[in-house]
């Protein structure tokens, strides 16, 4: 399995591993902590990785709602960002540990309750992410042509629940509400030359739809100003350099910003400088040529807050959006957008709301802060629930890049390890782990998918992709996945 | 599960090749700006297997890593290897190092250099700066390990693994991030 081995610093080859296996044979079952992790995205895998590495005996079982693992690495990361997906290699090594098992196709809260998990394991870590999105809360939000960016991303990435989205791409202008990295991902996928997309793992259905797309112009609309954009510089630079497109940046939005950003932290400073440069400076020869010959364009609109999605004569289809012009109160990251009273209308047949993801409570028995959309916790320890932990977006909210989730998951794993050491987690009561969950699942007719099952699905996807000259062709129907492994 | 010898397989993987390509390109050109003598020994030759086999012990560079817990890890790498190569090949125990495998898509191989070494490093690209912007515990002498290739002047240098502190999270709001 050479090619799927990661180049990351992960030490399965060390003698320690053999030692761990050896001592497991010698130790009694009671001494080996049985831990389970709910969710197989980066938070789940990084938590598992840290637990296995820093505890020689711990056993970790990972439960996943879908048959296939890796969460947003598979279903969130843009298809043209394969580099980020390299983390899958180290996750795969983790899953191959003889102290780790993966059980896909098991929905916690429905097939098995958290209480039942707590009876079966010494510790339960909730890392199920943010499966929902924040809503705009404006009239017309449910008109045809309006989608959440989350659903749109799920659609082109083969997330089963979004496979039938069929977004209407027949309009020339699309509006993305929000100015984060998801907004840029969505804009890039809408505007990328097909030759680029074709070589990615974008699903064939969505590629075919995008090939017929009429979208030529994408506006990214934000309530606040250029100093408050949420996207990061790598994604912006990529957008500015996207072949076949030109940026639409109004010089007035950027004049004078050079002085303001002198004292802001480096990331914000460099990000703003890049926008200022693209908006105000004369482009280089190559860039000027590309912009001149571009057939598609994208732009940033600032200080515009959505009021209403306008419907076409049929009352069903979106034809535009009414937006309030805002002014900023305060400055910097905490500036607030306040409507000025001025209102504008923007014509567009496609509206994607990209104002953030949102976690949902898993089970009414577990504390949840609906306002913050997180499980209340301290350093990953769920408040008032000894033995229950959380990591990733459900712990700190849907923000950050892969390193943020990695560090935060390591922190949670550290809390578990500390609690094992100090005896907060009582190992004297023997826990059966998956053995008892298996009988529960069996009695409820649920058939878990193992990691080697996933590897069969993976191989099938890679083989299908090969025929089309892409890294993989994702299977978008869970039933088809299950048939493939003859469930 | 990585079998013995995986490391050498991985060395051939695309992700690790960036430094070697740079080296190859500079060998084809007139030599290194910092006066490294590799080009002089094999003038005009591209970096092939035979040339690599000729690398002798004098092309080895010892590097010390100060890990997050203060532990010192010492390892040897070949001239041209990236610091990520060294960490992976020598199996150095640094948590989460090199998540994107050297493709400039994360900042987990962030390392902090001594001033006198930092000054002599090759110029940094915008793309590396972009990823460093998201690094935890950024300093004036920070670089990404995957972008720094060993040279002779680095012999016995000490690099520090930054502590994973939360301050970088506050510097930018990425609330709509993928």
TrEMBL record, chain A:
Organism: Chrysemys picta bellii
Keyword Glycoprotein tagged: no
Protein name: NADPH:adrenodoxin oxidoreductase, mitochondrial
Leader sequence residues: none
Binding locations of FAD: 43, 64, 72, 108, 393, 400-402
EC number: 1.18.1.6
Reactions catalysed: 2 reduced [adrenodoxin] + NADP(+) + H(+) = 2 oxidized [adrenodoxin] + NADPH
Pathway per the UniProt entry: Steroid metabolism; cholesterol metabolism
Cofactor(s) needed: FAD
Pfam families to which the protein is assigned, alphabetical: Pyr_redox_2
Family: Belongs to the ferredoxin--NADP reductase type 1 family.
GO cellular component: mitochondrion
Keyword field contains Kinase: no
One of the record's GO molecular function terms: oxidoreductase activity
Domain of life: Eukaryota
InterPro entries attached to this UniProt entry: FAD/NAD-bd_sf, FAD/NAD-binding_dom, Ferredox_Rdtase, Ferredox_Rdtase_adrenod
Broad class of enzyme this protein falls into: oxidoreductase
GO-annotated biological processes: cholesterol metabolic process
Record key words, sorted: Electron transport, FAD, Flavoprotein, Mitochondrion, NADP, Oxidoreductase, Transit peptide, Transport
Binding site for NADP(+): 179-182, 223-224, 235, 400
Locations listed in the record: Mitochondrion
UniProtKB/TrEMBL annotation, chain B:
GO molecular function: 2 iron, 2 sulfur cluster binding; electron transfer activity; metal ion binding
GO biological processes: cellular response to cAMP; cellular response to forskolin; cholesterol metabolic process; hormone biosynthetic process; P450-containing electron transport chain; steroid biosynthetic process
Chief subcellular location: mitochondrion
Keyword Lipid metabolism: yes
UniProt keyword annotation of tRNA-binding present: no
UniProt-annotated location(s): Mitochondrion matrix
Family matches, as InterPro entries: 2Fe-2S_ferredoxin-like_sf, 2Fe-2S_ferredoxin-type, Adrenodoxin-like, Adrenodoxin_Fe-S_BS, Beta-grasp_dom_sf
Gene Ontology CC annotation, any one: mitochondrial matrix
Keywords: 2Fe-2S, Cholesterol metabolism, Electron transport, Iron, Iron-sulfur, Lipid metabolism, Metal-binding, Mitochondrion, Steroid metabolism, Steroidogenesis, Sterol metabolism, Transport
Co-factor(s): [2Fe-2S] cluster
Similarity annotation: Belongs to the adrenodoxin/putidaredoxin family.
The protein's name in its UniProt record: Adrenal ferredoxin
Gene: FDX1
């Amino acid at each position: 399995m050479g090619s799927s081995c990661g180049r990351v610093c992960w030490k399965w080859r060390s003698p320690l591993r053999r030692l761990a296996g050896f001592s497991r044979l010698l130790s009694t079952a009671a001494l080996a902590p049985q831990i389970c992790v709910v969710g197989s995205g980066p938070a789940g895998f990084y938590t598992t990785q840290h637990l296995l590495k820093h505890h020689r005996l711990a056993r970790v079982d990972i439960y996943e709602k879908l048959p296939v693992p890796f969460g947003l690495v598979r279903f969130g990361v843009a298809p043209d960002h394969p580099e980020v997906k390299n983390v899958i290699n180290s996750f795969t090594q983790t899953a191959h540990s003889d102290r780790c098992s993966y059980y896909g196709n098991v929905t916690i809260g429905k097939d098995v309750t958290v209480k039942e998990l707590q009876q079966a394991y010494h510790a339960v870590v909730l890392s199920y992410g943010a499966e929902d999105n924040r809503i705009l809360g404006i009239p017309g939000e449910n008109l045809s042509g309006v989608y959440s960016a989350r659903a749109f991303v799920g659609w082109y990435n083969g997330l089963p629940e979004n496979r039938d989205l069929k977004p209407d791409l027949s309009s020339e202008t699309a509006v993305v509400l929000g100015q984060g990295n998801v907004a840029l991902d969505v804009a890039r996928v809408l505007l990328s030359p097909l030759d680029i997309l074709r070589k990615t793992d974008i699903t064939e259905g969505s590629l075919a739809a995008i090939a017929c797309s009429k979208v030529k112009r994408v506006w990214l609309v934000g309530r606040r100003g250029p100093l408050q954009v949420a996207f990061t510089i790598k994604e912006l630079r990529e957008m500015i350099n996207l072949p076949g497109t030109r940026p639409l940046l109004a010089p007035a939005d950027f004049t004078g910003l050079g002085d303001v950003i002198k004292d802001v932290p480096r990331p914000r400073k460099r990000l703003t400088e890049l926008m200022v440069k693209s908006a105000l400076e004369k482009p280089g020869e190559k860039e000027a040529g590309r912009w001149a010959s571009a057939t598609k364009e994208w732009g940033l609109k600032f200080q515009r807050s959505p009021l209403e999605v306008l419907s076409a004569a049929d009352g069903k289809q979106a034809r535009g959006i009414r937006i309030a012009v805002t002014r900023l109160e305060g400055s910097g990251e905490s500036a607030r957008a306040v409507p000025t009273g001025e209102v504008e209308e923007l014509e567009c047949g496609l509206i994607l709301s990209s104002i953030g993801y949102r976690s949902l409570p898993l089970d009414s028995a577990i504390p949840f802060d609906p306002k913050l959309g997180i499980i209340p916790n301290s350093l990953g320890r769920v408040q008032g629930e000894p033995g229950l932990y959380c990591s990733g977006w459900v712990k700190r909210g849907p923000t950050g890049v892969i390193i943020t989730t990695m560090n935060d998951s390591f922190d949670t794993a550290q809390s578990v390890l500390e609690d094992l050491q100090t005896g907060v987690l009582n190992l004297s009561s023997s826990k059966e782990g998956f053995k008892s969950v298996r009988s529960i699942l069996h009695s409820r007719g649920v058939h878990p998918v193992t990691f080697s099952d996933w590897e069969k699905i993976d191989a099938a996807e890679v083989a299908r992709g090969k025929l089309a000259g892409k890294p993989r062709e994702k299977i978008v129907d869970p039933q088809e996945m299950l048939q493939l492994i003859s469930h | 599960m990585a079998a013995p010898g995986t490391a050498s397989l991985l060395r051939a993987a695309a992700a690790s090749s960036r430094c070697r390509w740079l080296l190859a390109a500079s060998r084809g050109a007139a030599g290194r700006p910092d006066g490294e003598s590799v080009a002089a020994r094999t003038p005009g030759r591209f970096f092939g297997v035979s040339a690599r086999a000729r690398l002798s012990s004098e092309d080895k560079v010892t590097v010390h890593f100060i890990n997050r817990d203060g532990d010192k890890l010492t390892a040897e790498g070949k001239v041209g290897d990236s610091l990520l190569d060294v960490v992976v090949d020598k199996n150095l125990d640094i948590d989460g190092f090199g998540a994107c495998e050297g493709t400039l898509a994360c900042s987990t191989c962030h390392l902090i250099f001594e001033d006198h070494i930092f000054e002599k490093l090759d110029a940094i690209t915008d793309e590396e700066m972009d990823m460093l912007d998201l690094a935890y515990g950024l300093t004036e002498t920070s670089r990404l390990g995957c972008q720094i290739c060993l040279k002779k002047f680095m012999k016995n240098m000490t690099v520090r693994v930054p502590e994973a502190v939360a301050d970088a999270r506050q510097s930018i709001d990425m609330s709509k991030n993928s």
